[in-house]
Hints:
There is one protein chain. The protein is of the alpha+beta class. Among the domains are: 4-118, PAS domain (Beta-Lactamase); 202-254, no CATH class. It is built from 8 helices and 8 strands, in the order αββαααβββααααβββ. A 5-stranded antiparallel β-sheet has the order 2-1-5-4-3. Strands 7-6-8 form a 3-stranded mixed β-sheet, covered by helices on one side. Strand 4 (93-104) and strand 5 form a beta hairpin. Helix 5 packs antiparallel against helix 6.
Amino acid sequence: MLTDRDYRAVFEASPDATLIVDPDGVIRDINPQALAMFGWSREEMVGSGVERLVPASSRSGHEQHRRRYGQAPRARPMGQGLELSALRKDGTTIPVEISLSPGKRGSGKEHVICTVRDIAGWKRMRRVSKMMVTAAENERKRLSRELHDGFLQSLVALKIRVKLLADETSKEDRERMRALVAGEIHETILGVKRMIRELLPPALDHQGLSAALGSVFRDIRDMYGFEVNASLDRVTTKWTRPLRWPCIGSFRRP
Length: 254
């Protein structure tokens, strides 16, 4: 059988912030992870109201919810789809998930075990994942437009010109048409190579991100006349060219 000391060891070693709160909403115990999360000392936390950990805008509502919960306590696991925030000592708020579990202390008094998990990192990963999905979808749409409006149209035009070339009877006209077809084939090849470079710049594999961005920015400069200033890990690279219109593009790593 586990002793009080065993339970205490588990409480102290829990990887999540854990608080023991009585029916009046007073914090009776708190583990080291909770102290680190919220920034207060044990002396400041134990004996204070749990509402001090709730943002001011939600405090009155939280007190009502806490009282209703005390009338019919039940286990509430994490991940219930609630958008919850906790207040730290420095005034900053953090997104959290909270589980509640009613119980009794060794003295027989009722209490609630509150387990709090900081999900700021998870939310950041979720935002990044959403951005990546959106970026991939936008890239597919862009590639589809380029294939339809550029590559496909070029092939249709070439098909027509080849037919016209076959119908030409004049040697001079055939030579002119042949040169025209050859030029359009060359432009189409360049267009396909450009799309391939945009999908996976060769410099990304061989020289790294900085060189790959430089290649992309040079293409933007040559195509649109932008001047692009890029700063990456304290290394600043600049490509300049007289602007054809007042527009500056920039990239900066967060």
